[in-house]
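Action item from last meeting closed. Structure (198 res):
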């Protein structure tokens, strides 16, 4: 009587390894790790935009004027400026004098401390996805904080808000953001359309 040894042959093991490899490639393709990383970055940018917007609103509530203005009676300054390594210099902001240019200083420890210094340092870092503040300066105009999305899902959101082509380009933007259509919505099918809060 012969004892038969049970086990797998080399061919069976190679087939199992090949099937596992195919499944792993399919899962990676479905997950798309680059898209997930970009979505995480966009989520961080959205969170930072919300925090900045909230700080601007708190500053306005406590001081009676926006941080890009020098005082409540300064009605000439609007709040359209990039927040990045070169943020809020007189060159970047229209109608703003040197005293009004230090918006982030007013919002951080140098002013009302609405923002932590570490937050300010992070959003002005040269490797950060810069934020853009828009406020047309009129009575009742909202303040918007926008950023260029990196992920496909956030880009779809930006394209939906910009909407249209030609005469209807940017028609879905709120009325007080619509004058900035050339900055917020760059071109049809462009990856440069911005996500804007609120």
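Sequence:
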């Amino acid at each position: 009587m012969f004892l038969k040894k049970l086990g797998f042959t080399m061919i069976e093991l190679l087939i199992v390894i090949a099937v596992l490899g195919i499944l792993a490639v399919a899962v990676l393709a479905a997950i798309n790790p680059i898209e997930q990383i970009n979505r995480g970055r966009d989520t961080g940018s959205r969170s930072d935009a919300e925090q900045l917007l909230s700080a601007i609103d708190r500053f306005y509530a406590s001081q009676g004027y926006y941080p890009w203005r020098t005082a409540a009676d300064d009605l000439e300054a609007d709040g359209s400026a990039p927040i990045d390594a070169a943020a809020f210099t007189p060159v970047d902001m229209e109608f703003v004098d040197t005293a009004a240019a230090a918006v982030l200083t007013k919002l951080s420890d140098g002013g009302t401390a609405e923002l932590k210094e570490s937050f300010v340092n992070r959003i002005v870092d040269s490797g950060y996805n810069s934020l853009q503040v828009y406020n047309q300066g009129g009575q009742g105009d909202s303040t918007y904080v926008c950023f260029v999305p990196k992920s496909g899902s956030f880009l779809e959101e930006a394209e939906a808000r910009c909407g249209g082509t030609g005469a209807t380009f940017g028609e879905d933007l709120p009325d007080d953001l619509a004058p900035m259509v050339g900055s917020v919505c760059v071109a049809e099918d462009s990856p440069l359309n911005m996500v804007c809060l609120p």
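Note appended to the action item: The chain has one domain: 35-197.
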